[in-house]
Amino acid sequence: MHPPQTILTGTDYSDVSFRALQVAGHLAASWPARLVALHVIDRDELEDLRAQVDISDEAVLERAKPQLEKSVLQMAGPGAAVETELLIGHPFAEFIQAAERTGAGLLVLGAHGSGSERDRTGALATRCVRKAPLPVLLVRENQEIPLRRITACVDFSDTSREALLAAVLFAHKENALLDILHIRRPPVPGFGDSTVPSGFSVFDIPLPPYQDASEYVAHQEKLFSDFLKPVEGALQGVAWNRQCLEDLHPAQAIAAFLHKSGSCLVVLGTRGRTGLRNLLLGSTAEKIIHRAPCSVLAIKPAGFEFHL
Questions:
Q1: What is the DSSP string of 231-272?
Q2: Quick one: which H or E segment has residue 83?
Q3: In the chain, where does DSSP find H-type helix?
Q4: What confidence score (pLDDT) does residue 201 get?
Q5: Cβ atoms of 123 and 116 closer than 8 Å
Q6: Which residue among 79, 248, 266, 277 is buried most deeply as judged by most CB within 10 Å?
């Protein structure tokens, strides 16, 4: 991820979308970057309204624009340099097109919409994480500014290295403490350990068995060190911790770590290059996005192929 020259944020007048706008404004001032706030009037909902009221698209936009500008300026704060866009259409498509049109390098959204359950990620936010061809920051309503502690989740893949570099970028700008977190699964039992963990499945453990646990841990520590070597230069000037935990359930362990550490932001890589949901967004990433107590920054893999 490169420092964005343009940040696109969405508002639906919910409290969490206004918090997302404040976070986007803070980031835009820090980078610095152009800030564009977009509100999309859902065309399907507008058509339902037209069954009761005869009103044109032009009239709707004319009436809605002053409210949008006033609300955005109030929430962004005095002196904030923020542009507003108001469109009628299908929200996901309009956000994707707006990101392309504005050259946005980061999309900032509230983690749930006005009609979503507060403990679940909203439909638009989830779809953007899965399919938008740019980094997506999902902001929780309780998000602190500035971001004082950031967690980067790594699994030693190329995509997780990109996520780590994005986390480092944010840590530099926010002067934040960075935790680099890897969850290793327990070694395959049966070779020096006859105890099978509860819930164990051979499909959970892609690595070969080891003669004893210490051999496995040493191998994992070497993988971690090798993974970090290419980013040692980028980490200069950042206060960071290397965190390696062992658990059969990575998403659960990550959520527990985020709660315990008080992290403000978790950064992770999504994966896959096809339109298949289970390949487009890994199951661990999907669970973290829904369970994380803090905001989430999702980074797409290199060569990500977008299909509307």
A1: GTTTTTT--EEEEEEE-S-HHHHHHHHHHHHT-SEEEEE---
A2: strand 82-89
A3: 15-30, 43-50, 57-76, 91-102, 123-131, 158-174, 213-228, 250-261, 277-280, 283-291
A4: 46
A5: yes
A6: 266
The residue type found at 100 is E
As a residue count, the chain comes to 308
Burial (Cβ within 10 Å: 0-12, 13-18, ≥19) of residue 174: buried
Listed ranges 42-51, 67-76, 93-102; the one with the highest mean pLDDT:
93-102
Identity of the amino acid at 13: Y
Tokens of 107: 């999309």
User: Residue 268 class from Cβ within 10 Å (0-12 exposed, 13-18 middle, 19+ buried)?
Assistant: buried
Using the predicted structure, report yes or no on whether residue 18 has a pLDDT greater than 80: yes
Asked if 129 and 289 count as a contact pair (C-beta separation under 8 A), the reply is yes
Instruction: With a cut of 50, say whether residue 205 has pLDDT above it.
Output: no
CA atoms of 3 and 11, how far apart (whole Å): 23
pLDDT band of 210, cuts 50, 70, 90: low
Rg of the Cα atoms in the chain: 21
Going by pLDDT thresholds of 50, 70 and 90, the confidence category of residue 50 is confident
On the CB side of 2, CA atoms within 13 Å amount to 6
Is the predicted pLDDT of residue 281 greater than 60, yes or no? no
**Tokens 């509100």 belong to residue:** 39
Evaluate if residue 172 carries a pLDDT over 60. Answer: yes
pTM of this prediction? 0.87
Neighbour-count burial of 214, counting CB atoms closer than 10 A to its CB (0-12 exposed, 13-18 middle, 19+ buried): exposed
pLDDT value at residue 206: 47
What the block records as the tokens of 144 is 């602190």
Which of 164, 163, 150 lies closest to 232, judged by CA?
Answer: 164
